[in-house]
Design brief:
alpha/beta; TIM Barrel; eight-stranded parallel beta sheet; two-stranded antiparallel sheet; 9 helices
């Protein structure tokens, strides 16, 4: 089985210091959390950025500052900006970080009810626009899906040439409005992607490590981090993203998977050299 790629989603757009005081907002805090995650075995940093007060932003200049600070601390790590941003942002606003030519960026392939009146909107035309822009800039998309129908949409768009193949998917499981975080549904999702594709699994909240173990056994890859879960165990807040990565590493070793370095992750994912 190929080596395990661990992605650390270090801050997200919604989680706050009220959920866990270690959630990073400032550039210095983001760089620190990225470094702690990378030292424990994360080869990809999934990056949102925040203003110093915690307000989510897709500002190109803020991403540029965060990427520079992360690269100074861990130069080999793959930085994967989010183009999801936060609910209510425009397409142009969400796409700002890809103007920095990252190796990867997320591409959400469907609309999802996030609870209450919050709707995360990704129309077919939005997906096509994002895919075309990433092709033009030589950026590998991580195809983010919250349900099986989003896999079908990604396949449809890829057949029309708007997403390059082989695709790399991120199954976000257990989010409100999306597919449940169960082993049954994980097997269903993994069996629904095209041959030659790779996948990462992000389990939300208490499901993070159960889904991580399932992904490891199925030959997939793992995402952990404060964006998805702030607890190391029930009732125990993680002190850093590094603690969450270290737990994923321990599970992987128990299950016989070696951990990929950033360059090994690049090879597995077929990333273009920058």
């Amino acid at each position: 089985m190929e080596k395990l790629i661990i992605t650390a989603a270090i801050c997200g757009a919604e989680v706050t210091k009220e959920h866990n005081p270690a959630v990073p907002y400032t550039i210095e805090e983001i760089a620190r959390e990225a470094e702690l995650a990378a030292k424990e075995g994360a080869s990809i940093i999934h990056l949102h950025v925040r203003e110093d007060d915690g307000t989510p932003t897709q500002s190109k200049s803020r991403f540029e500052a965060a990427i520079k600070a992360i690269k100074e601390r861990c130069p080999d790590v793959i930085i994967q900006p989010s183009t999801g941003g936060a609910v209510g942002m425009s397409n142009d606003e969400r796409l700002q970080p890809i103007e920095l030519y990252p190796e990867m960026a997320t591409l959400d392939c469907g609309t999802c009810n996030f609870g209450g009146d919050d709707i995360f909107v990704n129309t077919e035309n939005t997906i096509i626009e994002f895919g075309q822009r990433m092709i033009k800039l030589g950026i590998k998309p991580e195809v983010e899906v919250f349900d099986k129908g989003m896999i079908d949409m990604a396949i449809k768009v890829a057949k029309k040439g708007h997403i390059l193949t082989p695709m790399h998917f991120d199954f976000v499981m257990g989010v409100n409005g999306g597919i449940s975080a169960t082993l049954r549904d994980l097997v269903f999702m993994a069996g629904s992607i095209p041959a030659g594709s790779t996948f990462t699994v992000a389990g939300i909240g208490r499901h993070q490590f159960e889904m991580a173990a399932g992904a490891i056994l199925l030959g997939g890859h793992v995402r952990v981090g404060f964006e998805d879960n702030v607890n190391l165990a029930r009732g125990v807040k993680a002190k850093s993203n590094g603690e969450l990565v270290a737990k994923a590493v321990r599970i992987a070793k128990e299950l016989g998977r070696e951990i990929a370095t950033p360059n090994e992750a690049r090879e597995i994912l077929g990333l273009m050299k920058k």
